[in-house]
Design goal:
This protein is mainly alpha-helical. Helices cover about 65% and strands about 0% of the residues. It is built from 16 helices and 2 strands. Helix 1 runs antiparallel to helix 6 and helix 4 runs antiparallel to helix 5. The relative contact order is 0.16.
Length: about 500
């Protein structure tokens, strides 16, 4: 029977305990459904990252009025939409089959990506259309709460860390594939080609969004055809899913009467907020920072940052392998603490130092103007040179030392280690703290706290970076990480599994 199965804790990454042919039908069906959730998380990650490195140049291309501050609002719009939707979809999944909120949310996401691809079409205020499209894409991504709630409810306590790590690995694969696809599609160029029948211009900016819409259609089909409702207790015993089974079939004796530790819940939300805030800062500032510090063009920034983010994604998969082993040997909380410390080091390394200053963009404009006056006869009449370097409007460019490429790469490597470790440990601990009750609403709040961080993070960094520069922006992030470590230390003993806290199992 399924309740007697002891899952192999050493299963390879992205494989689970349903690989043996001797396992019963319900057990295999449960893990097929969990795999669908893995794939949903993967596609959600692809849908976000596939346009993130081209968002800034797309804004500049379709609307000259867009600036770095507005970019912060566009990136934040995704997370604001997700923050609003997550508790709603989580509540929906607590009382109805989770296929309903999943299909609805994915369809919203699909439609919003098509809207994003057409954002160039209006005659004015195109940046507002991009903002709205990203907000709706984020609203559709509120299904992450449903995914996490389902996987938490469909796994035993022993299976939970492995399942969460596998889900995070799928998220990392999407994190890799998204920028890689964007980098590959950059060869279409800014002009691309026009599909006259539907008035659609396909170029390096719109093609990724259209591809994300196609992935969404595939996801809907998988949810409808494969996904089934499953729920097990912390000990692995099958229990009725209250969002699916009739009320008279629910055994209330399986429902724990003890209260959830609300201090641990609140702390977990705060720590997850901090982790997502710093990553939102990192993903938002990467393209503008590299263009300012290394004098990259828009196309170079999209291409090189796509490669960098792709490499970070591969690094994250290795981290998940280590996390699965480290959490079994040392526990979830020490891994979370180590991840926070590594993130601090990543941002500390990124602080400007030395006596070399960034290339100022107005110098390029002056030189290009001089060339056009003295050697205009040798230049094509339709030539245009894209200014590169740190914009002269950012006053700090004139007195803040440049960030070296080695600093940038080193910081990326460290953040690529710390963030995935903190991410998977945050919601693994959270799901264990909540226990076997339906977690849709609670997972909705956790996702909302992360989305709130991803809303405020881009706004914070775009404002502080534009006005004060990277020294202030990254120093404050370092301070936030120190605060997160102190908070974790203060409540360290309370961050334990529900069944451990109430003496049902031992830690």
């Amino acid at each position: 029977m399924s309740e007697s199965i002891d899952p192999d804790e050493n299963t390879p990454l992205l494989r689970d305990d349903a690989s043996s042919g001797s396992l019963d039908k319900d057990y295999r069906c449960r893990w097929r459904s969990i795999r669908v959730m893995y794939f949903t998380m993967f596609l959600s990650s692809v849908g976000f990252t596939i346009v993130i490195t081209s968002l800034w140049p797309y804004l500049k291309k379709v609307d000259d009025a867009a600036n770095a501050s507005f970019l912060g609002w566009v990136v934040a719009a995704y997370s604001l939409g997700q923050m609003i939707a997550s508790p709603l979809f989580g509540l929906w999944s607590n009382h109805r089959p989770c296929r309903e909120p999943l299909v609805c949310s994915i369809f919203i996401n699909l439609s919003a990506n098509i809207y994003y691809a057409y954002a160039y079409l209006p005659g004015s205020n195109n940046r507002i259309h991009i903002l709205m499209a990203r907000a709706f894409v984020g609203f559709g991504a509120g299904n992450v709460a449903v995914v996490r709630s389902y996987v938490s409810g469909a796994t035993s306590l022993k299976e939970r860390t492995n399942a969460m790590a596998n889900m995070s690995a799928c998220q990392a694969l999407g994190f890799i594939l998204g920028p890689a696809l964007q980098a590959g599609l950059s060869f279409i160029g800014e002009s691309g080609f026009m599909v006259e029948l539907i008035h659609l211009q396909i170029n390096m900016y719109t093609a990724p969004a259209l591809l994300a819409a196609l992935f969404g259609l595939i996801n809907i089909l998988l949810v409808l055809l494969v996904l089934r409702e499953h729920r097990v207790g912390d000990d692995g015993r099958h229990i009725p899913a209250i969002n699916y089974a009739p009320e008279d079939q629910i055994d209330v004796r399986d429902e724990p009467e003890e209260a959830i530790d609300q201090v641990a819940v609140l702390t977990s939300n705060v720590l997850f907020f901090a982790v997502m805030f710093i990553f939102a800062v990192f993903e938002t500032i990467a393209t503008p920072l590299s263009m300012d510090m290394f004098a990259w063009t828009r196309k170079d920034a999209v291409f090189y940052n796509g490669i960098i983010i792709c490499c970070i994604g591969f690094e994250s998969i290795l981290v998940f392998l280590v996390v699965k082993v480290a959490s079994q040997r040392f526990g979830d909380r020490p891994v979370l603490l180590a991840g926070l410390a590594i993130i601090f080091c990543g941002f500390f390394i990124l602080l400007p130092w030395g006596n070399r200053y960034p290339k100022i963009q107005w110098a390029d404009v002056t030189n290009n103007s001089l060339i056009s006056k003295t050697q205009g006869a040798n230049l094509p009449s339709n030539s245009s040179v894209e200014p590169t370097g740190c914009p002269f409007e950012q006053i700090w460019c004139q007195y803040t030392p440049a960030i070296h490429l080695a600093q940038y790469i080193s910081s990326d490597i460290l953040i690529g280690v710390g963030y995935p470790a903190c991410n998977v440990m945050s919601y693994t601990l959270y799901s264990k703290i909540l226990g076997p009750k339906p977690q849709g609403v609670y997972m909705g709040w956790l996702t909302a706290s992360g989305s709130g961080a991803r809303t405020l993070g881009p706004v914070y960094v775009s404002q502080v970076y534009t006005l004060l520069g990277p020294r202030w922006a990254f120093s404050l992030i370092c301070g936030m990480m120190v605060g997160a470590v102190v908070l974790l230390g203060c409540v360290y003993r309370r961050l334990v599994a529900f069944s451990v806290r109430h003496g049902r199992t031992v830690d």
